[in-house]
Amino acid sequence: MILSFMILLPVVAALVVATLPGEDAERAGRARVVALATTLVEFALGIWLWTQFDQTTAAFQFSENLPLFAPFLNWSLGIDGIALMLIELSVFLMPLCVLASWVAVKKRVPEYMAAFLLMESLMIGTFAARDMFLFYLFFEGGLIPMFLIIGIWGGARRIYASYKFFLYTLLGSVLMLVAMLWMVNFAGSADIGVLSKTDFPKDAQFWLFLAFFASFAVKMPMWPVHTWLPDAHVEAPTAGSVILAGVLLKLGGYGFIRFSLPMFPDASAQLIWLVFGLSMVAVVYTSLVALVQQDMKKLIAYSSVAHMAFVTGGLFALNTQGIEGAMVMMLSHGLVSGALFLCVGVIYDRLHTREIGRYGGLADTMPKYALVLLFFTMASVGLPATSGFVAEFLVLLGMYQTSTWATFVLTTGIILGAAYMLWLYARVAYGKAAGDDTRAMPDLDAREIAILAPIILATLWMGIYPKSFQAPMKPAIAEVVARLEGRQLATVPTDMSLSPALPALAAPAAAQESHH
Amino acid sequence: MHPIFTSIAIAGPETVLTLGSLAALMLGTFSGKGKALTVTSLFAVAILALAGFTLLDAPAGITRAFDGLYVADDFSAFLKVIILAAAAASVLLALPWLNESGSGRFEYPVLLLLATLGMTIMVSANDLLTLYVGLELAALPSYVLAAFHRQDDRSAEAGLKYFVLGALASGILLYGVTLIYGFSGSTQLDVIAGVVSGQTERSIGLLFGIVFILSGLAFKVSAVPFHMWTPDVYEGAPTPVAAFFSAAPKAAALGLLARVMIVAFPGNIAADWQQILIFIAIASMVLGAVAAVAQTNIKRLLAYSSIANIGFALVGLTPGTPEGISALLFYVTVYVAMTLGSFLVVLQLRRPDGSPVEAMADFAGLSKTQPKLAAALAIFMFSLAGIPPLLGFWPKFAVFQAAIASGLIALALIGFVASVIAAFYYLRLIKIMYFDEPAVPLASEGSSVNGAMIAACALFCSPIGMLAISPLVAATARAAAALFPA
C-alpha cells in the first residue's frame, strides 16, 4: 500500500492546496507550507522505501494489484531497483523545487504548488506502474501539469514553448500507444513483468521498437527531436526546469530499459547502429551548440541533450557496465543539471536575466555562490569524486566492448563538455562584473544554501561510494542483460584500425542485410 | 390480450413519451403565460424520467413487437438511457437562456420531447420503415428547434439550412431503403440479413442501397463528407439547442447506424460497408481536427469537435465486432458528458452587458475571473483531446483497441495522429483561459441547476470518472452482445 499512498498523497495535497480558503497572500503562504510538508513526507517515505527494499532480488517489490479499472487496466504497482532509484531521485528533488520557488513564484502560488504536487504523483506513478497502460496513463498525464507550469509561470516565449513541449511529446507517445495495444493483443496481458518475458516475432519487434523509440527518443530527448527541450527549459520557471531535467528526461531512459531492451531484445541488438549514430551526432553537435549559447539555461539544456546521449549510448552497449553506467548517469544528471538550473535561478532571481554577458566577477562579489557553481561545473564535466565521473567512466567502459568507434566519438564529448562548462564558469565567475547591478548582488542566503547543500552531498556520495546507488539496481540490470544475451548484434565496426569508414554511415547497410 | 396491447407494453418508453408530449402541450397551453415554460419543462423532465423507469422492468433478452417492426433489447435500452438523460439535461439547461432571450415559449420542451420520442424509436427500429419514421420524427422538431430564436436571423437561417439539407438526406436515405427492399425483398433487418447471407455473389443493387443508407445516416451523425451543415447550424441555432443537437441525436443516430449495419448486413457484405466506414471515420477525424484549428467561435469549434468525435466513435463500428460496438457505446456515453459539459459552461457565462459568450477571445483569462468554470472547461477540453488520465482518453483507447484487435492498425495510427492535431485546438482554449490576461470580465449566470450539472459532468470526465469504467464497460458489453445473437 506504500506505493499507492505515495502516489495519492500529493494528489490529495494538491486538491487541498488548490481549494485553500482566504486572501491571496494568506493562501500563497499556506500553499507553500502544505506543499513543502507534503514533499518532505514523500521524501521520508522514499527513504523508508529504500531501507525496506530487498537488494538481492530482481523481482518487483511492494506489489499491489487491484482490478480497479478493468477491463482496460489494473491498478498494478511494484518496483525493482531501477524504479526505486528513480523514485528516490524524484522525491529528493521535489522539496528542493518547492523551496526554490518559495519567493521566485509570486503569481497564482496555490495553483503552482498544486501543479507541482500533481507532477510528483504522476512521476512516482510512472516509475511504480507495472501495468503497461497504467504506465502510459502516468507517463502522458505528466504533460498536463507541465504544460500549465510552462505556460502560466514561464518566461517571454512561454506559450510557444508549452505548445511545442506538449505536441511533440504527445505525437511521440500516441505511436507508442498503438504499439502497446498491439502487444497486449498479442500477449494477452498488460503486465510489464509478463511482457518482458514474451518473445515477440522478430519482424514485429522491429516496428514495435520504432514505435516506442518515437516516444522515448522525444522524451529523452535525442537528436534530432531534441528541439523542444531548450525552448521548454528556457521558458520554464527555475523549479520547472529542475523537474524537467531532473526527472522528466529520465522517463525516456527508463522507458528504454523497462520496455525496449527486455521486450524487443532482437530489435535492440539490430538497431544499435541507429541509437549509436544518433548519440554520436548528439554529443558532438549539441556540445558545439552549447559552446555558442548566450543564455545560461539554454547552454545547460543543450548540455543535457549531450549527457542524455551518454545514457542512450550506455543503454545500447547492451552489457552490464553500459546499462549501469547509463542508470548512474541518469541519477547523476538529475542531481547535477538540476543543481545547475537552481544556480542559474539564484542569480536570475537577483538580476532577472539569463544572459551570460550580463554577469562576471561573481567570484569576488558572491564567493559562496562561485564555489557552489564551481562544484557543479566540475560535476557536470565529470571530475573524479563527483557522480559525473562514475557515470561517464562506466558508460564508456561498456560501450568500448560493443563499438570502439562510438566510444571514441562520445569521449570527445567529455572534452567539449569541459570546454563549454569551464568557459561558462570563466565568463560568469571570473573577470570583471558587467555592471553595478551585477556587483551589488548579495551572496547566497540561508534558504539557497539549504537547497544546494543536500545536492552537493548527494553528488559527492554518488561519486565516492557509488555502490550504495548501484547495489539495488544490480539484480534488475542483470535480468535485462540476461534477456539480451545471445541476440544477433548488428554489424557495427568495433575496431578502429580495421574500419576507416564512418560507422554511422557504414552500419545501416550491414544492419539491414542481416535483418532480412 | 390483443397483440397490439402487448406491443404497446413492450414499447414502454415510447408510449410514455407519446402521451407525455401530448399532455405537455395541453399543460403548456392551459397554464398561465408567465410560468408556462417552467411548468412544462419540469413536466417534460418528469416524463423523461418516467420513460426511463419503464426501462427498468423491461424483459431480458430480445423482444420484438409490432410484427417485428420494433425491437427492445439491451442495446436499445442502453442507448435510451443516454438519450433520455441527455434530453432531460437539454430541457433543464435551456431554462435560463430561454427566459433571458425572450424566446421563452413552452413549445421548447414539447418539441424536445417529440424529438426524443423519435430518437427512442430510432434505436429500437428493426425495420427500415420504422427507422425512417423515427428519424423523421426526431428531425422535424429539430428543424423547428434550430429556428426557435426566430427574432434572430442567424437562427432562422440555421433552421432553414438544417431543414433543406436534412430533407435531402432523408430523401437519399429513403432511396436507399427502396433499393434494399427491391433487391432483398424485405425491409425487416433480420430478414434482410437472411437474404444477404444466402447470397453467393455480390449484389450491386444492395451495395448501392447500403451506400445511400450510409450517406443519409452520415448526414444525421454529421460525419464527413456530409458534415457541412453542422458548424453553421451549431453557430446559428440557440446555444441550448446546439447543446441538444450535439448530444442525444448523435447517440441515437450512431446506435441506429450500428444496428442497421451489424444486424442487416453481416457476413461477406460487411467488408464492403467497412471500407466506406473506414473512409468516413478517417475523413471525419482528420477534417474535424484540421478545420477546427482556424475557428474563433466556440460553438463552431465544438461543432468541428463533434465531427471529429463522431469519426473516432465510428472507428468502433468499423471492425463489426462485439468489442467494437461495446467501445462505440462507451465512446458515445463519455462523449455526451464531455460535450454537454462544454456547452453548459458556455451557457453559464455572460459578458458584462449580459449577452451570451461566443467568441473564443472572450474566454481570455477566465481562470482568474471564473476559476471554477475555467477548471471545468479545462477538464472537458483535455478530456475531449483524449489526454490520460482524464476519462476522455479511455473511449479512444477502447475503439482503437477494438480496431487493432481486428488488424486495422493503419486506421488506429491515423486516428491517433488526428487526435494530436485535435489536441492543438483544445489546448488553444486552455491557453486562452489560463495563459492570457483577462480581456472582458465574464460573469457567471449563476443557475444552480446548471452549475450542478457542470460539476457532475466535470467529475465524470475527471480521473475520478475512471472508477466508472468497470461498470460502464460491463453494461456496454451486454448491450453490444444483443446485436450479435449467438
Which protein chains are joined by the largest interface, and how many residues does each one contribute?
A-B, 33 and 31 residues
Strand content of chain A: under 5%
Strand order of the largest sheet of chain A: 1-2
Record field, number of beta strands of chain B? 4
Q: Quaternary status of these chains?
A: heterodimer
- Order of SSEs of chain A: HHEEHHHHHHHHHHHHHHHHHHHHHH
Q: Calculate the mean pLDDT score of chain A and round it.
A: 86
Roughly how many Å is the radius of gyration of chain B? 21 Å
The class by helix and strand makeup of chain B works out as: mainly alpha
The dominant shape of chain A is: globular
Percentage of residues in strands of chain B: under 5%
The secondary-structure element order of chain B is HHHEEHHHHHHHHHHHEHHHHEHH
Instruction: Provide the low-confidence segments of chain B as ranges.
Output: none
| Straight-line distance between termini of chain A | 48 Å
Q: What's the total number of strands of chain A? A: 2
User: Spans of chain A with pLDDT under 50 lasting ≥5 residues?
Assistant: 496-516
Number of H- or I-type helical stretches of chain B: 20
- Derived from helix and strand composition plus strand pairing, the structural class of chain A reads mainly alpha
Q: How is the secondary structure organized here?
A:
The complex is a heterodimer of chains A (516) and B (486).
Chain A: H1 2-18, H2 24-52, E1 61-69, E2 73-79, H3 81-100, H4 109-128, H5 132-141, H6 143-153, H7 158-187, H8 192-195, H9 202-219, H10 228-235, H11 238-263, H12 265-270, H13 272-291, H14 296-315, H15 320-351, H16 362-365, H17 367-381, H18 387-402, H19 404-429, H20 436-439, H21 446-464, H22 467-470, H23 474-484, H24 503-515
Antiparallel strand pairs in A: 1-2
Helix pairs in contact in A: 1-2, 1-4, 2-3, 2-4, 3-4, 3-11, 3-15, 3-21, 4-5, 4-6, 4-11, 5-7, 6-7, 7-9, 7-10, 9-11, 10-14, 11-14, 11-15, 11-23, 13-14, 13-19, 13-24, 14-15, 14-18, 14-19, 15-17, 15-18, 15-21, 17-19, 18-19, 18-21
Chain B: H1 3-10, H2 12-30, H3 36-54, E1 63-65, E2 70-72, H4 74-101, H5 107-124, H6 128-146, H7 153-184, H8 189-198, H9 204-220, H10 229-236, H11 239-264, H12 270-292, H13 298-317, H14 322-348, E3 349-350, H15 366-369, H16 371-385, H17 393-405, H18 409-434, E4 443-444, H19 448-461, H20 469-481
Antiparallel strand pairs in B: 1-2, 3-4
Helix pairs in contact in B: 2-3, 2-5, 3-4, 3-5, 4-5, 4-11, 4-14, 4-20, 5-6, 5-11, 6-7, 6-11, 7-9, 7-10, 9-12, 10-11, 10-13, 11-13, 11-14, 12-13, 12-18, 13-14, 13-17, 13-18, 14-16, 14-17, 14-19, 14-20, 16-18, 16-19, 17-18
